[in-house]
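The aim of this short unit is practical: by the end, you should be able to scan a pair of folded records and say something sensible about each. We start with the first protein, listed as its amino acid sequence and then its structure tokens.
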Amino acid sequence: MITNQVLLLLVLCIPWPSNALPLTPGNIGNLFGMPESDGRILQRSKRGWMWNQFFLLEEYTGNDHQYVGKLHSNMDKGDGNVKYVLTGDGAGTLFLIDEKSGDIHATKRLDREEKAMYTLVAKVLDRNTNAELEPDTEFNIKIHDINDNAPKFAKEIYFASVPEMSEVGTSVVTVTASDADDQTYGNSAKLVYSILQGQPYFSVDSENGTIKTALPGMDREVKENYQVVIQAKDMAGQMGGLSGTTTVSITLSDVNDSPPRFANRKTPFLASTEIGGAIGRIKADDPDVGRNAEMEYSIVGGHDMFNIITDQTTQEGVIVIKKALDYESKRDYEFRVEVRNTYLDARFIHGLQFKDYATVKVTVEDVDEPPVFTRNPYIIEVHEDTAAGSFVGVVSARDPDADNKPVKYSIDRHTDLERLFNIDSVNGTITTLKALDREMSKWHNISVVATEINNPRQTTRVPVFIKVLDVNDNAPEFAMSYDTFVCENVKAGQLIQTISAVDTDEPLVGHKFVFTISATNPNFTIVDREDNTANILTRRGGFSRREMSMYFLPVVISDNDYPIQSSTSTLIVRVCACDSRGNMQSCNPEVLPFSDGLTTGALVAILLCVIILLMIVVLFAALRRQRKKEPLIISKEDVRDNVVSYNDEGGGEEDTQAFDIGTLRNPEVMDANKLRRDIIPEMLFPFRRTSPIKDNTDVRDFINGRLQENDTDPTAPPYDSLATYAYEGSGSLAESLSSLESAATEGDHDYDYLSNWGPQFKKLAEMYIGKTS
């Protein structure tokens, strides 16, 4: 058998009570639950050569390593050939073993709250060969707890509430603390609760930390918030135990234990507002809050002139005017206002009146009021076709103030855009400006404005409804346009059309129309049906489209109102071909055939085509003829005038840029080189005008005569016009340039003198001199 020996030296680790047995080798085994031996050597089997559990106190405060225990194997002869090796939790770091002696030490202090037990494996090896001398043995080192953790609450501060006026012992809130020490060993984690602050209002249960009320009748209106400090202490509250504290903020919640009260029993107000306006506010005080402070105001017994409304936001009573106040009629009013809580708590209604009363006095102020009409609105009737300036009606208004200031009247023209009515500004008489027509408008709605003369800002409007009464001034007429036809094979007395009439007038007894036609009408007759309709019947048969394709039947329609109005409406009756059952087949006029087989319509069409062709031919010939006109100058031998055409219109009397009118009036003052000022001349050489021969009376007389003829001509246009005359005058140096009378003697002329006439006649000289040569 292999024996092993473990020596546990715990004298420095475990506080040893004074009344306990002395720590000797003989009772070490008893201390750890080991069987006793001789007190020094513990014998184990081969597979259990050492004890499997050691105890170690946590939080060791010594400077040296803490001794845990000693391992010893029977194989160790003390010659140093045995080596002890330790593996497992914390081996080599937290726990070190002496290889030679087997002593185990802890390198630092251990905290049970971090880890309560460590499992290690002990080995016995041959130092030289590292061969195992004993089987590996597992053992535990258990950390023995000490009271090193104080109780802790989950929160530093708690918030809670309890209704005011609660009974003693009413639970408020439960606060609990926790202790990290061992719950199963000693009293290190056994907590006791106590109250450090908050007495005598609250108490705490020492076992579970429940806070309860301790004082009756706590009033929120007196004190609302309380700070309570709770302590939790371990070691069952004994001396030397650790403790922790927390603060609990307790608020008394409101209950409806206070009735509303008016601070002022009498409240005066001044009233001058319109209907619905507020004249003031009245408020009662209620120390409660929230729903418990909600109030409702009312007037005791009600009131005809005033009403009170509760403002839910401010909990005030708003006094409003229910009817218009009249300073001249009554100046003072007095009534009582009641206030009460809308929500009542049944626990507090006994012996308390949760309502209060106040007296309100209202004094009516005298204000400048606008005029007041005697009626609102006005309804006036007037007959149509009333002449302009006729009387319609009268409106009246007065100033309700004591001064009774004068009032003037006017019509709001936005309501009378057609200006049909006028009003007297002094007495309010309404008259017509134009004749009224009921058929155009049955009602006229105008607004009359009454204004104080001394204060134009005080105005009042009143609607005036003018009804236009009917006068029988319109004649009846056909209700619709009728498409009437009669068959050629119709018989006498057959119905061809039923007619009716309408009248825009509205008689009091209703419409009654009478239909008549000429009694001498040989073709048709009419039968009045006495229901504002009439039947048109044929007087004969045998109608023919060849003889007459359409008949015009005048129908006289009369009403029965006064004065009687009548009108004549024409009914157009077409003659149509019908089948045997009277259904219309064709209403076109029948065309008589000619001997050559062509109808009249065909002949007319042919004639129109011929006329159109002739017009096209004539137009084409005229265009070709106009296109073939010879130019003014055919060749160099043409001796006719060279005409330069300007396609330009004068600008009238205001056109001073084109022509100088003074030149026509006095030819003698013309400039020698006067050109148009608004266009660039197309002449190759500058124009030079020779000074006119004085006393050209024949040209002047000619122009004056033509001017006088145009001025006295009644057919002349009503605007300025230019008349051009080809008159040379008798004093021309060139005599006549026309070649109309020189055809017979053309060869005897010598044209060399043309070259001396200047540049103006250069082209003409070249033409004639060249031709002669």
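Turning to the second protein, read its sequence before its tokens, just as you did above.
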Amino acid sequence: MAEAHQAVAFQFTVTPDGIDLKLSHQALTQIYLSGLRSWKKRFIRLKNSVITGVYPASPSSWLFVVIAILATMYTRSDPSMGLIAKIQEHLPVSKSLSAQCQTVVSAVVFSTLLWLSLILTMRLCLKQLLSYHGWMFEQHGKLSSTTKAWMALVRIFSGRQPLLYSYQGSLPNLPVPKVKDTIHRFLDSVRPLTDAHQFERMSTLAREFESGMGKRLQWYLKLKSLWAANYVSDWWEEYIYLRGRSPIMVNSNYYGMDFLYVTPTPIQAARAGNTIHACLLYRRKLNREELKPSRIPGSLIPLCAAQCERMFNTSRIPGEETDTVQHWQDSEFVAVFHGGRYFRLWVYQAGRLLSPRELEHQVQRILDDPAAPAPGEERLGALTAGDRVPWATARKTYFSSGPNKRSLDCIEKAAFFVTLDDEEQGMMGDDSGASLDRYAKSLLHGKCYDRWFDKSFSFVVYKNGKNGLNAEHSWADAPTVAHLWEYVLATDSFQLGYNTEGHCKGEVDPSLPRPQKLTWEFSPELQQQVGRSLAVAQALADDIDFHVFSFRDFGKGRIKKCRISPDAFIQLTLQLAYYRERGMFCLTYEASMTRLFREGRTETVRSCSNESCAFVCALEEGEEREECRRLLRAASERHQNLYRLAMTGGGVDRHLFCLYVVSKYLGLDSPFLKEVLSEPWRLSTSQTAVQQGELFDMVNHPEFISCGGGFGPVADDGYGVSYSLVGENMINFHISCKHSCPSTDAHKFGAQVRKALVDLLDLMYTEPARTSSRTPRHYQHNPPAVKKDQ
């Protein structure tokens, strides 16, 4: 208990001679330095708030305006047209001030008001400029004069050196589409999925809704859009994520993988040390707003950064009716799980961030700790993997006081969660495909009790040095977490690095206190509830079928040469693969972002369109090659248009979802909305963003590529498909489904995807598309700090 004694800043003893006071110099130093770090963070937040608040101007521009006004007055001109004199008349200053001083004060007040007015005007102009989305619908490489003028104005009003949140006040609000437009787009999306009778029935329901209840619901929605920054996001978070009572493991959480071909070090503690340190460096940049604002690739258009605010020090808290997302301002420790035990690992010492070598030393202490887990402690995490109501009840009953509450607070208030896994994972062995499938399942659900699924994100570091992460979905979407993950991987490998023995670089402070093992008290009733939650989670995990593979025959490089959008190409591939496997089309979900708007999250692209179905049928029925090409291009253009509409607020599903929420608040029942929102998404797809920060050199270091990430199936009889376009010559796929459905098989569907990819490119090229069916070349780059996977 040496660390406990060090934490005591002073001790006193009452004696007959008086009070004997003993001060601990070391403890007082620690308190002083920790407080100093806290005040520094407050000052930085205050400074950034001022800089962001006056953007696109700068604080120094205020001085320029003041000097300009005073200089103009010195020439006996009145730039205020009498306003300075009016201000002087009503200025509550002492009469002891001379008339000249009163004039100067009045001029400064006028200059400040003028400066603030200019800032507001510039911000409103920028907001109006960012509301224009016509550029997105223009043909690539052929911009209109209007768009060129718009781009010049955006550049002028965007200011210089923006901080992470500088654009937040200038982003437009998400517009509410017209009910008529949404209904038209919805009917167009279901036309290829219904027969004539079903379509006529749905059209009747839609027309009745549009002419009746829809008008009333739309009025309330427009009222909300005037009051709230985003009419969708808060309801989407609450009703889609937080009110769900089923397990969030598999159903909501998602994962991200490590490098595909290399492992920077085989030492588990060293990899954990660099990963934790890199992640905390990212948090420091985030707190200081030093990260560059995300933008549309290749443009000046900013994206909303609101999701970054709850990345760290955040946990989902279970409730009986609805969960909540709890965020803390700061945290100086991380929670670590290993061997059935939970630890608190302090990451700061005397206000200083521990070095990677010191973090490795502390992690190794946890790995070497011989203490056995308390009875019931090993499987405690299963509560976060099972149904939400039993977890909420158990939390209220067994974790509201005593050591259980203190230990649970340590996990929930931690910066993030780390699991030191006893298994080895990654692409290894003779059957690399099967090893990737196991790797994906391990990251998605593990053993169902060795992850804390409620944390905003959790790192998993395996015994062989591989790592990965599991993220909770309610607080943010995958691109935000992917940005963090890319930074961590790049910093780990290219900046921090390892020595020749595979250990982290740096020295160790021998006075570091040992990581603190958390203590628990488990009653028999609590252990029984943990067992029930584990049974639910284990049944769900065992039912998941996964197939992960890298398609290397070609990539987006050859697809773009066909003058087709790579994303549209893959979506058409998925439609063709599904049709070949099932002999039918299905409602298809593709995630698109709405971060062009303030607090924007996602919108649905209904990828199964009339045009895509016409193309697939023509190809399968053996139509002429030129006709199939024409239909493919038409389907691709249609998909791109649907994606652009979704990004610019013209999607279907979020609007209908919000209308449904309003109807429930008003106690109204809409057969149309009820039927629309009950339709299953049997093909749920998402593209994983890569190279958001341009941190990897794909040309000189092609082996340093991640395999991306994935998620579980949305429908019991459907597929979940995540894909990433890596570099110019690789496409990674993560396909999930359920064993319990006899009509789905992840590996068979993967085979259909491979065949469809080649068939589509063969259609567009006169020469064969299969130019690289051999195994990937052996990369020669082999720095001392990198160990190749075997």
